[in-house]
Write a structure and sequence with these properties.
There is one protein chain. By secondary structure, the protein is α/β, with parallel strands linked by helices. Helix content is about 50%, strand content about 10%. Strands 3-2-4-1-5-6 form a 6-stranded parallel sheet, with helices on both faces. α2 links the parallel β2 and β3. α5 packs across α6 and α9 crosses α12. It starts with a strand and ends in a 5-residue tail after the last helix. The structure holds one RNA strand.
Amino acid sequence: MTLIVIGGATATGKSDLAVALAKELQGHVINADSMQLYKGMDIGTAKLSLAERQGVPHHLIDVLSVRQEASVAQYQIDARNLIDQLLEQGIPAIVVGGTGLYIKAILDDLNFPDTDPEVRERIAKEAEELGADVMHERLAALDPAAAAAIPKENVRRVVRALEVIELTGQPYTANLPRIGSSKYPHAKQFGLVMERETLQERIDGRVEKMWEQGLVREVRDLMGGGLLEGRTAQAALGYAQIIKFAQGQMTEEEAKEETKRATRQYARRQETWFSRDERITWLKKAPTQELMERILLSSNASNIGNI
RNA sequence: GGUGGAGUGGCCGAGAGGCGAGGCUCGGGACUGCAAAUCCCGCUACACGGGUUCAAAUCCCGUCUCCACCU
């Protein structure tokens, strides 16, 4: 029973590799990309077409409407359920995606405290009125450790910390666990890397291609379908920029260049995120077939891909 | 050839004698229910050569380059 996780920056070829692996192992793919969760966001999230999936079952893709908000906590439940089911049936599970937090939520001992939209909204509103300093001071009084860990400028996190404290009466854990996977200790994690320069060229090329494929059209259609109603989906790379273009806040060319730039920056953040996970075996750019062989070799040789 | 204006870090751009605006890019980092999000840190420049001054990116002289206009 095999659980393989593939992470890494955007545009490194994760999806293709996952399909190749799944075909070889007769496994299923589980998406770990927060934006591929959305129905209709196909071109801009570089979602694999049905043909490209080559008959390999993909899970947690197209499960949300653009009006809905994605949530790590929900993702954690769904993904773990799915993995457990597959493994029970003896089907290899291949988790792929660039959303580091989502992957961590599957593997590590992350327990998301409850949330309450009303409480959150109230605190967020207070933050707007009172300012970041006041909120941070409030947090410092209630939970000094959390306040020390969260910069006052990061209002979003301060608000969530205050929400959790109010809801649970417990201190807020503001630091991610650094060590070990506790949920699936035998999962085998791989990361795809390539040189910055190469990656940037691929990103630029990919954005150009998305435009040719009709990303602007896709975004316009989604705007008609409620894209602006949810908070999460409209923030996606490419989508956010095209929305601005559609609203006359920038030209189409600017939207495209902005998308490239933002994607490059995103890739950097992804690398930072994944680089701190010492469980990952890094694979340098190579043809998909070769990468797959290396993964199989690595998994079998150590036999730790088996649970 | 003449007159006027301008030359600031990868880019944009303020400053106009007294300890180096700012933004963007880029690089590094954080990250427990929006994570393709949110946020933090770093990158010491003033075309070149002289001079004045305790002190010059800021003043003076010269050189080069660019832009306008004139002949």
